[in-house]
What we know:
The chain is of the alpha+beta class. Helices cover about 30% and strands about 25% of the residues. It has ten helices and 21 strands.
Amino acid sequence: KGPVSVKELAALIGIKPFQLIHHLxxxxxxxxxxxxxxxxxxxxxxxxxxITIQTDKKERHAPVHTAPLGKPKAQAPPPQxxxxxxxxxxxxxxxxxxxxxxxxxxxAIRQTKVAAGEAGGITQxxxxxxxxxDGRSITFIDTPGHEAFTAMRARGASITDIVVLVVAAxxxxxPQTIEAINHARNAxxxxxxxxxxxxxxxxxxxxxxxxxxxxGLVPEEYGGDTIFCEVSAIxxxxxxxxxxxxxxxxxxxxxKANYEGNAKARVIESQIEKGRGPTATVIxxxxxxxxxxIVLCGIYYGKVRAxxxxxxxxxxxxxxxxxxxxxxxxxxxxxGEELVVEKDEKKVKEIVQERIEALKKDREASLTPKVTxxxxxxx
Length: 379
Ligand code: GTP
Ligand code: MG
């Protein structure tokens, strides 16, 4: 039998591949799921994990277990019917300079053709989609790179668990690249760098790495802790590895949410749609959002008339990290606004009324010129 891959070794020692990759990373070994590990590395990682291995001379690289097999598995916890905290999918936002390939990369991941269908190829809004890789879900948000959309990107960063910073290998670090890094840092969100367009003759991934290193994103191979992936959205190179790295990062973040109870969600975009009225695309953050729920969102409210998933299908309920379009609000809420479920319709109307009053006051205050010592003589 030949050498053992990361996936196989993880199965042998009873941990998840991503945990193994993480341990390897801490040993400065940057391995992918399918990478073959040599004996020294296997010995090293097993030592770290406190596992004794025997190497069978005839089966040269296959490690054979002797007890104990890693950490003893924790005793099954007593049943906790009240706890519905479960792991949830990471919410990942693609950010970067205009035309560096965010939408194309998302297309390559979804194997669809969104970028080609966009007006002028510029992303006009934030799309959100869920993708399943090896049985695990990832929710992706696409943001526009155009300067006019700073606020949208800031919101993208704050709704997200991981930012994938897309940098074109031929173009390098540009103003919106820096801006995206700042948004991610402000929101304290980890960054994975995707160097895109490596298929182009002018591609220079090394230059991108050194540019990013200068601003504090140091690749692991240079002793830093930022994951860099080299990809081509068009030639579909490195896409699987990028997804693995996202899942690895997500694993480290240990993202969890309550899957029961009244939902809380964040608006990522809203529209008034012909035949549908106001719609809001939200990402559920906790609880379960159901058709028929009474929801409150900013200064709007309503009974959820329909929920539409990212494939356009009507669904009855939505769970944490799912993007879903909500129909039934009496207006289009602002992106970034929180949507909550509230059983008591009377209370909802009161809260909305209060918010509208507060807004009116704000507006009047900003319209009434303030007389101050500074401006009193300026009239
Ligand atoms: P905005 O949403 O406008 O900020 O742009 P974007 O970052 O979403 O870029 P988009 O995916 O629209 O791609 C911009 C252009 O780059 C398109 O013409 C793509 O075909 C091209 N492109 C994207 N990825 C690659 C790649 O890997 N290789 C090559 N050669 N071209 C690419
Ligand atoms: Mg785009």
